[in-house]
Amino acid sequence: MDNKPLFYNEYEQFYKMTECSKAFKSFCQSAFGEDFSQDGFSDINQINRMLDVVPKCVDTHVLDIGCGNGKMLGYLQKKTGAYIHGFDYSQNAINTAKSLFAEKAEFRQGLIGEIDYPEGQFDVVTSMDSMYFAPDMKKFVSQIMRWLKKDGVLFVCYQEGDVMPKTENACTTVFAKSLDALGIPYEVEDITAETYDLLKKKRETAVKYKNDFEAEGNMEWFDLLMIQTDFVTEPYELFAEKMARYVYTVRKR
Ligand SMILES: C[S@@+](CC[C@H](N)C(=O)[O-])C[C@H]1O[C@@H](n2cnc3c(N)ncnc32)[C@H](O)[C@@H]1O
Q1: Per the CB 3.0–4.6 Å rule, which of 65, 91, 117, 170 could disulfide with 127?
Q2: What distances in angstroms separate CA 134 from CA 5, 94, 137, 172, 199, one per listed residue?
Q3: Terminus-to-terminus CA distance in the chain, angstroms?
Q4: Which of 133, 159, 191, 247 to mutate to test the pocket of ligand 1 (most atoms within 8 A of CB)?
């Protein structure tokens, strides 16, 4: 990639660190319930919500947008037997995904907005904190809808207040407005309160493993966890003015 997209180098470093840091693995297990090398907010409760929309048949195909090293997809495969597909712009992440999952699995390095898949290939498309990187949200949403089979489901966890600015509510996000503009109905659940509790847990857990991060020479990642969770040092009412998190479910008719 000649012109590096936003955060490219940071994510390459992040996925390199997740390969060897025991402190980060322990942190993920304790904070999120499973180690999927999460860079964000996807704990096991959010991921298990997705299990409700993944059909339990042998030829189900699931695509994860911004899949990182594929561990979340590996969990979905273990639970449902689905074929797993993922793409991410991080070469480090995709190398790890390919080394971890070979059966019924396909991983590609590629950019949101550039990578493409055949029409009607997937039963489920998921995006955990990755829609923000679409250069043209409306165009990307219609591309995803083309990738889905009829009755297929798009499952999106979406945060406001960090990469995306906070808007009024779940119907005013850039993602929701793109769905509206395309005439696509959706269901949405507001999980801001749950996220506040998760961020508190994330902060407490990071502090618990601080010495381990230090011993590994990985304090920059500990510091990042502190920055990412700084909001929860305020009461919930103030947090909710600045941040929100939603789970969208969109069905292709
Ligand atoms: C906030 S992280 C979320 C990762 C993972 N889905 C999770 O929930 O932990 C965003 C992911 O999208 C990838 N990413 C960021 N910008 C991208 C882009 N323009 N094209 C493809 N992948 C991108 C990053 O490498 C990273 O894995």
Answers
A1: 65
A2: 11, 19, 5, 17, 25
A3: 37
A4: 133
The CATH number of the domain holding residue 166 is: 3.40.50.150
68 CA to middle of ligand 1, Å?
A: 6
Residue 104 domain-assigned? Answer: yes
Determine whether the shortest distance from the Cβ of 38 to ligand 1 is under 6 A: yes
Q: Domain count of the chain? A: 1
Ligand 1 centroid – CA 82 distance (Å): 22
Residue 239, domain member (yes or no) = no
Whole-model pTM: value is 0.97
Looking at residue 228, what is its pLDDT?
Answer: 92
Query: Is 221 a member of any domain?
Result: no
Q: How many helices (H) and strands (E) does the chain have?
A: 11, 7
Cβ 90 vs Cβ 12: under 8 Å:
yes
Residue 173 lies in a domain: yes
Task: Supply the range of the domain harboring residue 128.
Answer: 8-20+38-195+246-251
**Which atom number of ligand 1 is nearest to the Cα of residue 42?**
8
Assess whether the C-beta atom of 66 lies below 6 angstroms from ligand 1. yes
| pLDDT single digits (tens) 64-112 | 999 999 999 999 999 999 999 999 999 999 999 999 999 999 999 999 9
